[in-house]
Amino acid sequence: MATPTEEAIWEALRQVEDPDFEQDVVSLGFIQDLELKKNKVSFVFGPDTPLCPGRKEVAEKARAAVEGVEGVKKVEMNMEARIKSHQVQQGVQLMEGVKNVVAVASGKGGVGKSTTAVNLALGLAACGAKVGILDADIYGPSIPRMLGVSGKPTSKDGKTLEPKEAYGLKAMSIGFLIDEETPMVWRGPMVMQALEQLLGDTNWGELDYLVVDLPPGTGDTQLTLSQKVPLTGAVIVSTPQDIALLDARRGFQMFEKVGVPSLGIVENMSLFICPSCGEETDIFSHGGGQKFADDYGVEFLGSIPLDADIREQADTGHPTVVAGPDSRQAEIYRTIANAVAVEIAKQGEDHSHKFPNISIQAD
Ligand SMILES: Nc1ncnc2c1ncn2[C@@H]1O[C@H](COP(=O)(O)OP(=O)(O)OP(=O)(O)O)[C@@H](O)[C@H]1O
Predict the structure, then answer these.
(1) Residues 157 and 54 grouped into a single domain
(2) Within this chain, do residues 115 and 248 fall inside the same structural domain, yes or no?
(3) In this structure, are 132 and 264 located in the same domain?
(4) Distance from Cα 161 to the centre of ligand 1, integer Å
(5) d(CA 64, CA 66)
């Protein structure tokens, strides 16, 4: 029987493409620690994303490709997500231990930004990533309600704040510190300061992704906030009407101004799924998100239907990804989480030098 060569194995692996990246697994650097001992091959499948189902399928194709090399008798493959840090510095302090910071934003309020942020965070965690969520929505912090957690944060050392834990996520919210009834007029400047503290003083530990739920809109407050965080990139959530009104475009323009890469757009409340018969209705002419993405050269990350379960679950502290993990809706959120992770991985490791540092005052 022929003895396999390393070259033949690498060549076989080069034929395996990851459809999300449209590149082969060798060029992507996903194959590591390859060893050949006589007829036995071992390697690590170590993508720069969590091990979402799509990535595991690619790993299995890689294993099959190696098994198909003449002379190979045994293949030992270990799958291990090796997520890299892609923080963009923008003149602010990088957050130690936090590999990627993802802003979730929207052109206006009420489009489902927080619901999407929570389910995105849980979708990333469902793929095995270490995930945190920071509720920076100073005008209407809803993460505590959506995760079913409340109360003032504690501190072990009198210096750093301990995040709350919910469904495997580490969570910190401005809502833990202020009373929901506190009038807005008091909140602006005080809350901005508190937010800076939450960002810098929270004991996040080691995180692959920190999802930041920004306040709705694209004004100075959002700009200032985006500049206080070393964002890896931004996800814009829009409804079909919002896309038509080009509110979404303003979101992208805001991030462009401060040099934050756009990871893509999520179209929320697009199709209506009838709760009794399951029929899908195109109330707001769904599909605008894809067209928007094509027109403006941004990634289309997916559409989420307008669905009574999503609303009920988010509003009662059991977001869809954990309340109904086998549902089609949860699968949609996990697919979006994978798409976001893929876009982050495509960012490259350090682009801090590429971007200008524009200083904008808070309003
Ligand atoms: N896909 C969906 N289907 C049905 N209801 C949804 C969906 N997404 C969000 N909702 C509901 O819409 C309401 C607004 O959602 P959410 O609080 O996430 O919006 P938001 O954009 O963060 O709003 P704001 O920033 O103004 O607080 C909530 O009651 C939520 O449960």
Answers:
(1) no
(2) yes
(3) yes
(4) 28
(5) 5
113 is in an annotated binding site: yes
Pairing of strands 262-273, 300-306: parallel
How do residues 65-90 score in pLDDT, each as one tens digit? 999 999 999 999 999 999 999 877 66
On whether 251 is known to bind a ligand per the annotation, the reply is no
Return the structure tokens found at 321. Answer: 């990804």
At CA 336, angle to CA 222 and CA 130, rounded to 5?
80
Q: Look at residue 48 and tell me whether its pLDDT is greater than 90.
A: yes
Domain total in the chain: 2
Ligand 1 site: residues with CB under 6 angstroms? 106, 109-115, 137, 140, 142, 216, 268-269, 304, 306-307, 310-311, 314-315
Of residues 192 and 227, the one with the higher pLDDT is 227
Residue whose CA lies nearest to ligand 1 atom number 6: 311
298: domain CATH number? 3.40.50.300
- Domain with 112 in it: 101-353
- 358 inside domain: no
Q: What φ, ψ does residue 6 adopt, rounded to 5°?
A: -60, -40
108, 114, 237, 331, best to mutate for ligand 1 pocket (most atoms within 8 Å of CB):
114
354 is in an annotated binding site: no
Least confidently predicted of 56-65, 250-259, 347-356: 347-356
Top mean-pLDDT range of 70-84, 238-252, 292-306: 70-84
pTM (whole model) above 0.95: no
**Rounded to the nearest 5°, which phi and psi values hold at 68?**
-80, -5
Q: Tell whether residue 219 is among the known ligand binding residues.
A: no
Would residue 297 be called left, alpha or beta, if left means φ above 0 and alpha means ψ between -120 and 50 degrees?
Answer: left
Alpha carbon nearest to ligand 1 atom 28, residue: 311
Residue 246 covered by a domain: yes
pLDDT tens figures, 156-169: 988 889 999 999 99
Same domain assignment for residues 37 and 168: no
